[in-house]
Amino acid sequence: MIPLQQVLVLSALLFSLGVYGVLARRNAVLILMSVELMLNAVNINFIAFAVYLAPDKVVGLVFAIFVIVVAAAEAGLALAIILRVYRNERTANVDEVDLLKW
Amino acid sequence: MEVLFGVFAALAFIAALRLVYATNSVQTTLAPLIVLLLVGLLFVILSHEFTDTISALHAPQVVFYMVGGLALAGGMGVVFANDLVHAALFLIMTLLMTAGVFVLVSAEFLGLVQILLYGGAVSILIIFALMLTRARETQALRLNGPQWPFALVTGGGLGAVLILMVARVDTWKGLTDTTYKTINDIGNALFDTYALPFEIASLVLIVALVGAIVIARAEETPELPAGQAEQR
User: Fold this and answer.
1) Chain A: nearest CA to B225, how far in angstroms?
2) Number of domains forming the structure of chain B
3) Are residues B120 and B207 located together in one domain of the fold?
4) From the CB of residue B153, how many other CB atoms can be counted at a distance below 10 Å?
5) A62 closest CB neighbour out of B79, B132, B189
6) Which one of A62, B57, B70, B106 is at 20 to 30 Å from B138 when CA atoms are compared?
7) Of the partner residues B110, B126, B151, the one whose CB lies closest to the CB of residue A23
8) Domain that holds residue B66
9) Is the ipTM of this complex over 0.85?
10) How many CB atoms lie within 10 A of CB B23?
11) Does residue B194 sit in the same domain as residue B131?
């Protein structure tokens, strides 16, 4: 008997926390963690709408599964790139990776 | 009603912000938790005054406040912690609490998938990356950039807009006792209606796997062929 608005408020707060984390944090792994936070907030939103407004359809739950799959794949790839950059530049700080700047 | 919830959450946010910026790790880990649990308790007590959306205090609602409060505390720990490994552990707490939210809205299979994938695989991956990029040697000053006030305005503004949008709608109904989709229905849908996205998702996973191995592979030194080594 949880009102839908409260689940959506939770999702909105988690998403805005993730946005702050992506913009303010300077370590690459921390930015990735904030992106995972945003993806989880979006999943809560999807599943809340799927269960409350269309409980006879399964499309919301299936979409949330695909979001989890793509988020896991993207986390693996992003961490591989961070490792490569760390091996070459000896830093994981995104402010210090400025080779393409003029 | 929900605007009040947002206001309480914003006050807890500001209080935890001030507390979490301390360099003491005990304050970093415990302060947002305690603040949010207290705010949740306060909201639970005050919600007896407003009887238009909830008529009585049900057990699932109290559990949702606690689980949601811990998820928000974990989120705040991720973006405000001064230590990288603390932030990773806070992320694990947030991921497990969102699995709890999924179970509370009767999507149990998604909750289990969340625990398996996020709590079991993505968290380990992130901690491995922290280990391989020497996270322990990074000082706290280099974790936050100088543009954090603008980030605060952006994140806070986005959250405020979303909460106001949610609070203006009155026509949504609550969770009723209908039959929800189970793992049977999800499995049938994945092989029947959504078979093509399912196959494409497996292709995405294979490409990500191969790509991650190729990108993160160690550099190979050039070797002489076996024939040339024996001719000397």
Assistant:
1) 28
2) 2
3) no
4) 12
5) B189
6) B70
7) B151
8) 2-171
9) yes
10) 9
11) no
* Chain B residues inside the 8 Å CB shell of A43: 98, 102, 110, 114
Taking residue B147's Cβ as centre, other Cβ atoms within 10 Å add up to 12
Task: Give how many domains chain A has, as a whole number.
Answer: 1
Asked whether residue B95 falls in the same domain as residue B25, the answer is: yes
- Judgement on whether residues B150 and B198 belong to the same structural domain of the protein: no
pTM of the shown model: 0.81
Chain B nearest C-alpha distance from A83 (Å) = 6
Q: Which residue has the tokens 């949601």?
A: B68
Q: Are residues B104 and B209 in the same domain?
A: no
Q: How does pLDDT run along chain B (232 residues), one tens digit per residue?
A: 455 555 665 665 565 555 555 545 555 556 656 666 666 666 665 655 554 454 455 667 777 887 888 898 889 889 888 888 888 999 999 999 999 999 988 899 999 999 999 999 999 999 999 988 876 676 666 788 888 889 989 998 998 898 888 877 766 666 666 778 888 889 999 999 999 999 999 999 999 999 999 998 877 666 655 555 555 4
Residue B210 and residue A80 in contact, taking contact as beta carbons nearer than 8 Å: no
What is the residue whose two structure tokens read 């009155």? Answer: B170
Are B135 and A92 inside 8 Å of each other by CB? yes
How many residues are there in chain B? 232
Burial (Cβ within 10 Å: 0-12, 13-18, ≥19) of residue A68: buried
Give the CATH number, domain containing residue A73: 1.10.287.3510
Test A61 with B110 for CB contact under 8 angstroms: yes
